[in-house]
Amino acid sequence: MLNNEYLKRVYAQVEERDGHExxxxxAVREVFESLEYVVPKHPEWEKAGLLERFVEPERxxxxxxxxxxxxxxxxxxxxxxxxFNSAIGPYKGGLRFHPSVNLSVVKFLGFEQVLKNSLTTLPxxxxxxxxxxxxxxxxxxxxxxxxxxxxxxLYRHIGQFTDTPAGDIGVGAREVGYLFGQxxxxxxxxxxxxxxxxxxxxxxxxxxxxxxxxxxxxxASEVLRQQKNDSFEGKNVIVSGSGNVAQYAAxxxxxxxxxxxxxxxxxxxxxxxxxxxxxxLFEIKQVRRERISVYADEVQGAEYHEGCKxxxxxxxxxxxxxxxxxxxxxxxxxxxxxxxxxxxxxxxxMPLTPEAIAAVQAKGLLYSxxxxxxxxxxxxxxxxxxxxxxxxxxxxxxxxxxxHEIMKKIYTACYEASVxxxxxxxxxLGANVAGFLKVADAMMAQGVV
Length: 449
What we know:
449 residues, alpha/beta
């Protein structure tokens, strides 16, 4: 519940304007509830209309994306780019290709990205984009044609000092390559820093592929060590999803001594009491691009269950939701609690519903919001931009070390902010406040723009 009159008034304005955008409203409300602890100390913000500007994107671009399939039929999808806030640097945030993409989803992701990028300590503003195009089941040529059409419009709105997209759900190395190739052809120059997640042969960074997943585990390790004097060692872990983030979160978790016993895709989940065979999973997902159910067909002792949300009924010590927004509801959270879980570390953006977060926090489980624990991906995108600007590349070990240090610093910033707000250990509160204060300071310094 919001109590501060300024926060209530601005949130009411957002509801009036964007009442149909449920994901965006959810993200704004979560942040505003945290800002109750700092807004009363800064009356100058209201006079400057800071919050009114903070919740309104600086620019929203929506466009059609026509493309032709292999049978010669023309299709038209919608493309989006929301450039939310550039107070601390150029807009930075991924592109998502998925049927669920709409303006509400892109705005919520862009809004979260502003705070996430602020937490990395790197000079990056927040933005997000994508399309309701579904790459599943499409040929390489169909995906290439779609990406080229998408970039033919997007190119005019991006640049290494303006807006630098990256990948997200449905946009991996293949899609980034097609997007960058079309951008380079149109502008007739090699602006390596205009998009991140590139292949190593044309300006990509080592460790970028692994960065989001590894970063979650680095952050989680810090939380476990600092708040519980504990670690991943000997823990049973659920990692929902089976895309890039989930794959490398599972890999690093196992390297740190944990055992990942369940993973999922949009149709269902697999349970392997012996621990997921990552070599097999990587082959199924990265090479064959097949459903996760195939894992249970080919690995003795593994079970496949329809219904991805039921994954939270599997008994575990640590849960890392790495699939998509609102994937864990109150029932899922209560199942985890009943089975004795000690922690939930978000890998996706806003994967827990507000009711799930309340349930987890009420029972004292360790909990981290995605804007903090999954910031490793965008942090390493920032490092890729740095390497492009320097015309050099760092080793995997150098990038990984920098990532590890950034995740430690994010934890420290979140924890210190939670202490200053009188709620030590509340990392959702700490992440929202720490991220916001840096952006607010920059916005105040730059005037009413």
